[in-house]
Amino acid sequence: MFSPRGPSLPELVTQALSSVERGYDLLAPKFEHTPFRTPDAVLDATAAALRPLGPFGRGLDVCCGTGAGLRVLGPLCRERVTGVDFSGGMLARARAAHPEADWVRADVRALPAGERFTGAFDLAVSFGALGHFLPAERPALFAGVRRALRPGGLFAFPVAAPPPVGSLPYWALLGFDTAMRLRNAVWRPPFVMYYGTCPLSAVRAELGAAGFGVTVVPLAELGRREDGAARCGLVLARRP
């Protein structure tokens, strides 16, 4: 599906009936050929918005997957870049594609302690990962990222504007989330992947509660909705 080099429908079904970790291990060899991989346009727009705020020292890619975030962190960071993910399969692909970076297998809800992660980074980014965390799990995620940043460090991630109510994308996302909730109600282990559980207002409040100062800048180059609002914004959460 998606492309001749992408996963087949049976492969996607097997992934969807697995845990999140096992599902991404299975998907890893073909992940780059699916729509789940963050598009280069989003990565480039993020890099352009961050460039005037840098340069940065060490960089951290939170839920790094196969390493697409290196397209942002590599040019912006003068020191070593680290990616962290809990899928060994995804990390193997990232390590093969970007041997110049460090790749760490860990649950980002409980990042390792010690000097390697505590107060070690100037810039952290994340792409397309928030839907894998239930609302009750995000405070631990944000607190962990804050601990990993040096004072003055920045956590940045793009967030798409919600589609207009009643539009085709609105019903598509609602249908997907509903299907995932039904799946998780009747099948174990759960596969957490929701698109409607992280509205910007809630994310801003949770980042603020974790001790970040938060602003949002529009990524205008990614287009605008009919009401004139940017289709995507970049959350900039800074550790004071």
From TrEMBL:
Gene3D superfamilies: Vaccinia Virus protein VP39. This is Methyltransferase domain-containing protein. Residues 60-153 form the Methyltransferase domain. It holds the Pfam family Methyltransf_25. It comes from the Bacteria. CDD domains: AdoMet_MTases (cd02440). Signal peptide: none annotated. GO terms for biological process: methylation. Keywords: Methyltransferase, Transferase. PANTHER family: TRANS-ACONITATE 2-METHYLTRANSFERASE (PTHR43861:SF1), TRANS-ACONITATE 2-METHYLTRANSFERASE-RELATED (PTHR43861). GO terms for molecular function: methyltransferase activity.
